[in-house]
Amino acid sequence: MTTHPSRPMRARSLAEKQQRRADILCAAEDLWTTTPYADLSMNQVASAAQLAKGTLYLYFDTKEELFLALVDSHLAAWITRAAALLEERRPRTPAQLADALLEAGQDSHSVRRLLVLLGTVLERRVRPELLQGFYQNLNVHLERLLALMPLEREVSVRVLRHLYALAIGWQHLSEQPQPQKFQPQKLQPRPTDAQTGPALGQGCVLSGGQHDADEEFGLAVRAVIDRMTRVAAPA
């Protein structure tokens, strides 16, 4: 019988299964940095994670379910970091609140990419009951964060809603290619929503790359929080 020493044995304990699941998510995310979502296959993920394809399907039925789990993991991590910073610092001003939320998401590019994917692809293709469970779990995490924010609950909800909208909108802009001279012989197919989401035309002056994207995103977040909390007294 031929053996495959480089391929991990089937996980048996709960800890092993959790580690195997984490390895799968890591492999999928690494692949996504170089492969458009539409071109990424479960076979590629299995190979990158050094698993048989059948083993991969013990953890995730579809690519969409796998990436929904990735969204859930990143959002839970961001909320946990944000909650810890809020609990430690007890911010009282809009600037202090913005500092904590932005510091929690210092490497927010991955989260923003996943939020775009969630709204353009995953919500349409994941089983409704799985999507419902995802949002129920997210609401539990968000309630913990809301309880720590130094504002009335309604204002805190509005701040997080605007933060979500900014994250998606800023990611759409930052993913667009730089304007180029018109070259008919080199025209490329228009990206689909599974790759980048709704796109501006390549010649639009609003399109741009990653230049200073995080810094400018931070400026936008600070401006919104300052405006939203200017007349809101601390709770």
What does this structure look like?
The protein is about 60% helix and about 0% strand. It has about 240 residues and is mainly α. The longest helix is centred in the first third of the chain and has 27 residues, at about 65-90. The radius of gyration is 20 Å and the shape is globular. The model is unreliable at about 1-5 and about 180-200 (pLDDT under 50).
What key attributes describe this structure?
mainly alpha, 235 residues, 9 helices
Multimeric status of the protein: single chain
Structural class: mainly alpha
Count of runs of 4 or more consecutive helical residues = 9
Question: Mean of residue pLDDT?
Answer: 83
For the sheet with most strands, the description reads: none
Helical fraction: 55-70%
Low-pLDDT residue intervals, each spanning 5 or more residues: 1-6, 181-201
What is shown here, in short?
The chain is built from nine helices and no strands.
SSE layout and pairing:
Layout: H1 14-32, H2 42-48, H3 53-56, H4 63-89, H5 94-104, H6 109-125, H7 128-148, H8 153-174, H9 213-229
